[in-house]
Amino acid sequence: MKNKFLNMLMIAFVAISIVSCDDDETTPPSNNGTTTYNSGSVGLNFENIAGSVFLDPTGATNYVNAAGETFSVTNFKYYVSNVKLIKDDGTKYEVPNSYFLIDANDTNSLIAELSNIPGGKYTGIEYMIGVDSARNVSGSQTGALDPVNGMFWSWNQGYIFMKLEGQSSASSNNSFVYHIGGFSGAYSALRTVSIDFTPSILIVDGGKREAEIHILTDVLEIFKNPNNISIANSSTIMGVGISSSNVANNYADMFSFDHIHNDPL
Amino acid sequence: MKVDLKYKLFLLLSFIVTIQACVPDVEPPVTKPLFYQPDGFPPTSGQLVNNPVTYYGFSLGKKLFYDPILSLDSTISCGSCHQQFAAFAHLDHKLSHGINDLEGTRNAPPLFNLAWHSNFFWDGGSSHIDMQPIGPITNPVEMNESLLNVLVKLRRSTYYPALFKKAFGSDSITTQAMTRALAQFMSSLISANSKYDQVKTGTATFTVDEQNGYTLFKSKCESCHKEPLMTDLNFRNNGLDLHFADAGRARITLQPSDSGKFKVPSLRNVAVTYPYMHDGRLNSLSKVIDHYRSGIIQSSTIDPLLTGGNMSITDAEKQQLLLFLNTLTDPAFLNDKRFSEK
Q1: Biggest distance spanned by C-alpha atoms of chain A
Q2: Cα–Cα dist B282/B324, whole Å
Q3: How close B122 gets to chain A, by Cα (Å)?
Q4: Range of B72's domain?
Q5: Cβ–Cβ of B148/A150 closer than 8 Å?
């Protein structure tokens, strides 16, 4: 009997622990019937993958693209900008001045810190891959947009939105280089990504909860859907044009939602 | 003893004052602003809105402009291919020269009145005066240097950090500060005091031949070489070729209809900026006029204003036109010590 009671207690305890882990829906402190949340920071985390495994950006690991070609990755960078968080009422909060250069070889760059986000519940996120046309033509920029980062073309001036470089036996010189950009016109490589968290919900309540969004970026998607890119046929794609635009159509869907960290602090 | 100390202090102070007076960074007379809006000029492109020209910003820009440290092997500066006596073009050089005697594919254009341009290069490939220098600095056949290396070298220098601090209030040497300083110097290269300008403001008069040349210019040239900048800043095909070795504007827009189009160059100071055309193929103004008299080639993208074929310009008219074009030379600009290397 005593044992049974203890077992029951254990089960209840474990159950409570489990429930308390899943606290996305926990009611925050209320004040006169209205719920208030503090503004706070949100960490937008990018985890670079190649299909089902984490991407090794050192060139030491081989992957296979949709064309069946073996390749490795030595450089993978992309701009994420114009971030908007979607509130649970459908309105959007545009994060001012949000420009991030994600570099697979720089772990510090993998978390884009969105600060001063109004408190509340969010169901999704939108952002641009690349740099909007205004910032391409507004003179010398700083931070992620500093041309010294090597993501700026010098003669047909404008930002390179995505760089993927690596080695592949499919290429005649054993390497491949994709530098994709173009901020205007028919061959613009700007793409907007829209990601839905639901059924998860992100609660921003500064100082009370952590708030992290984890997104997976799959390099294999750059080679497929809707355009199959073969390294043997196209080992170099650089500059603005139809080839770049085709790659952009592919990278438009390289992102997928993974999970949210939203535990109380 | 007390008096003696005071005297010593006085001497010491005088000495310090003397040393300071030797530091040659006295501001120039305020009567001649570095950047101004010449009478009759249209509004600027507005690209200096976040980067107003200051004396120290201009001075830093000038220092950078003439410093070969911007090139990979420290042999070439901006000033190497942009010479003041040639209105900051490269006199008698068809194509741009780079390190190791490498040659580019286009003629180094003259530099003046750049604040009225909203794009740069013969094909308009740069959309901002801040960013334009990144082209020649990183071009493998020009200065062939990386932006990062330039910054590293400038940071290592004994005097640049202080110059950046004076110009921008911080000794941190960044791309933005460097490019803004260059933009300040380049924007200050204003040419608006030629005889033509003096005639316009009533302080000089054309000779009869110059006036006839001006009348001819108004009827034959001015639709593209629009007054007072002497360029309409558009991209046009002026009938040089049937097929285009250099796609020109189409390199940027990717529109076949832009093939063979280049930015209309200003005719200001044109007498001192030879050779001419985007590839420097014509080495005299006489040959340029002859091109419009007898050499216009009709091609798929020929400018609509030239579809009528060659222009009828008599030999006498050509001489008058040349005399008028000479009135566009601005000796005050070509000799302005503020813009000189030394």
Answers
A1: 82
A2: 19
A3: 11
A4: 55-190
A5: yes
Does a structural domain hold residue B26?
no
- Lowest average pLDDT, out of B30-34, B201-205, B214-218, goes to B30-34
Residue B176 is nearest to which of A140, A150, A186, comparing CB atoms? A140
Shortest distance, CA A157 to any CA of chain B (angstroms): 5
Query: Which of A176, A128, A126, A131 minimizes the C-alpha distance to A149?
Result: A131
Closest residue in chain B to residue A154, using alpha carbons only? B135
> Token pair 């341009």 is at which residue?
B117
Question: Which region, left, alpha or beta, applies to residue A30 given φ > 0 means left and ψ of -120 to 50 means alpha?
Answer: beta
Domain-terminating residue out of B155, B190, B225: B190
Q: What integer pLDDT is reported at residue B125 of this predicted model?
A: 97
Distance from CA of B154 to the nearest CA of A (A): 14
Residues of A with CB under 8 A from a CB of B: 136-142, 146-148, 150, 152, 154-158, 185-187, 240-241
CA distance B233 to B225: 8
Give the pair of three-digit tokens for residue A77: 């960078």
Q: Do both B238 and B167 map to the same domain?
A: no
- Judgement on whether residues B108 and B76 belong to the same structural domain of the protein: yes
B194: left (phi over 0), alpha (psi -120 to 50) or beta: beta
Q: How many domains does chain B have?
A: 2
The answer to whether the Cβ–Cβ distance between B252 and A241 falls below 8 Å is: no
Q: Is B327 inside any structural domain?
A: yes
Residue A74 · residue A59 · CB < 8 Å: yes
Nearest to B134 among A136, A142, A154 (CB): A154
More confident residue, B214 or B23: B214
Quickly state the pLDDT bin for B96 (edges 50, 70, 90).
Answer: confident
Q: pLDDT tens digits for B112-150?
A: 999 999 999 999 999 999 999 999 999 999 999 999 999
pLDDT of residue B342: 80
**ipTM of the complex, rounded to two decimals:** 0.86
- B288 and B315 inside one domain: yes
Contacting residues of A for B180, CB less than 8 Å apart: 139-140
What pLDDT digit, counting tens, does each position of A44-87 carry?
999 999 999 999 999 999 999 999 999 999 999 999 999 999 99
Say if residue B262 is in the same domain as residue B275.
yes
CA B228/CA B231 separation, integer angstroms: 8
- Report the distance separating Cα B53 and Cα B60, nearest Å: 11
A/B interface, count of CB pairs below 8 Å:
68
B89 and B111, same domain (yes or no): yes
Could you tell me the residue ranges of all domains in chain A? Answer: 49-261
Cα–Cα distances (Å) from A167 to A50, A54, A133, A142, B287, in that order, read 15, 18, 32, 32, 52
